[in-house]
From TrEMBL:
This is Uncharacterized protein. It comes from the Bacteria.
C-alpha cells in the first residue's frame, strides 16, 4: 500500500490535491478505478470533487433528485460516496485514501456547516465499518484487503488535528470524540458511534 496522502490545504482547495492519489489502482464498491463504463459511481475522485461544486443549475447525476436545480452537487457527491467508499456498511481500499480529503474539506473555514455535519456523519459510518474485518466481503466491515479497517483507522488518526477543532460544534463533538478514540479502541469507539448515528 502506498502512503495515505494528507492534503496540505483545507476546504475546496484540498480537493485540488486529489491527483496526488492513484485512484485508478484502488478498489471501491464497484471495482477498481473508473472501469470501462466511466459511470459517476465508479469515480471516487470525481465524487470527492463534487463536494465543492456550487452550481445552482446542477443536473442530478445519481438519483438524489430528478430535475435541474432540485438537488445540489454536494448532495450528489455525498450520495455517491455512500455508494462507492461505504456501501451498505462495507468499506474498501479507496476509503482510507478518501478519509483525509473528507476531513480536509470539512475543516475548511468556508465549508457550510450543514455540509460539514453531513461529512462527519459519513465518517461516523466509515468509522463503525473500520472496526470490523471481513476480507471476503460482508454487509458490515471491510473488503478487499485484510488491512482496510486498520488503514482506514490510521487515516482517521492522521486527520486528528483537523478533526479536533470541528468538535467546537456541540452537535459534532460526541461523534468527533468517538472518531478520535477509534484508532486506539475500535470496538468501544464503534459502539459509541453506532449509538450516535442511530439517534
Amino acid at each position: 500500500m502506498t502512503d495515505i496522502v494528507i492534503p496540505l490545504a483545507t476546504g475546496a482547495a484540498a480537493l485540488d490535491e486529489l491527483d496526488r492519489v492513484d485512484w485508478e489502482s484502488l478498489a471501491h464498491a464497484y471495482g477498481i478505478g473508473r472501469g470501462d463504463d466511466d459511470a459517476p459511481h465508479t469515480d471516487v475522485a470525481g465524487s470527492l470533487r463534487g463536494l465543492s461544486i456550487t452550481d445552482p443549475d446542477h443536473e442530478p447525476q445519481c438519483g438524489t433528485g430528478t430535475t435541474v436545480g432540485e438537488t445540489s452537487a454536494f448532495d450528489d457527491a455525498i450520495y455517491l460516496l455512500y455508494g462507492n467508499i461505504w456501501h451498505q456498511g462495507t468499506i474498501y481500499q479507496a476509503t482510507a485514501y478518501a478519509v483525509p480529503f473528507l476531513v480536509a474539506y470539512a475543516a475548511g473555514d468556508n465549508t457550510p456547516q450543514q455540509q460539514r455535519r453531513s461529512i462527519i456523519e459519513l465518517l461516523a459510518f466509515i468509522g463503525i465499518a473500520s472496526s470490523f474485518e471481513a476480507p471476503e466481503g460482508y454487509y458490515a466491515g471491510s473488503w478487499g484487503s485484510t488491512n482496510v479497517g486498520p488503514n482506514t483507522r490510521a487515516a482517521i488518526a492522521t486527520s486528528a488535528d483537523r478533526l479536533r477543532p470541528m468538535a467546537d460544534d456541540p452537535e459534532l463533538r460526541p461523534v468527533i470524540d468517538a472518531l478520535l478514540r477509534l484508532p486506539d479502541n475500535p470496538e468501544q469507539a464503534a459502539t459509541a458511534l453506532s449509538a450516535l448515528v442511530d439517534d
